[in-house]
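Hi R.,

As promised, here are both runs. First protein below:
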Amino acid sequence: MAEKTFVQGDTAPDITALISRSDTGDPIDLTDSTVQFQMRKQDDRRFTVNGLADIIDAIAGKVAYSWGPNDLATPGDYLVQWEITFVDDKIETTDPPNSITIRRQ
């Protein structure tokens, strides 16, 4: 079952997340980092969306991605994840991925 549902063709609301450590639940400090929002169909390995997210509150790990005009064009079930690139160029991807559904309009 999807954690969030969006409507085909919409560009709002943004998708948001509080990124935290999977082992402790503590927020990941995103200061001086960049974050990519990545989305793919559950049965595909290729990302249909791979875009730069906005960091809303770095200390709290809060991020948001603003949908592009075609990001929600195709209905279906998707897996989403956030890829963090830290200031030292180390990369960490959220795990496990979350699921969303894009429903027909």
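And here is the second one, sequence first, then its structure tokens:
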Amino acid sequence: MHQHSHHHHHHHRSAPRHGDGDRGPGAGRPDGFMRGRKFSSDDLQLMLLSLLAGGASHGYELIKALELKSDGVYRPSPGMVYPALTYIQELGLVGVASEGNKKLYSLAEAGAVELAAQQARVDELFASLVHMARKMKHVRGAMAEERGGDDGAWLAEFVEARVALKRALMLKSEAGPDEQRRIAAILRRATDELNGAPAAGH
């Protein structure tokens, strides 16, 4: 019918964006696996504030905490963490006490205010750490096959349902406005139901 619809496909591939800092584990993987490693510096600062809300800590303890929460998947380097700590310290969000040659960081009042303002984002960030850990566990578990219901791993039906949803959405990439609206409504209903809200109008 309208032959021009295919032309615009070719533009995307013309410039593979490699050398733009998108390197790192799994950066170029098609399925975006491990995309979560690439938190922005803002994200890292928020996670550090949140960890400090639990009590004063040294930088290496904060790194360890992020590693633990993600089951070893997210290990930000000291080269990322210390500058982030210095930055939030300069903003007055954290206080620092020197203990010998080590620095003890603690949440300042302004930091607590900032944290409260960003609570939804913080919850999302930590949920993604846990998600990365579960995903990794699932991959390891799938490789080692089911050894009697590994309760940390995802159920096969859970994974299949997620994959099916991603595929269905991908196949709808070229949907027109009406179809996009229909899909958006379905996804909103599903999201509300996942979040435990009563399904609207049923």
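A quick note on the second one: The mean pLDDT is 79. Let me know what you think.

Best,
J.
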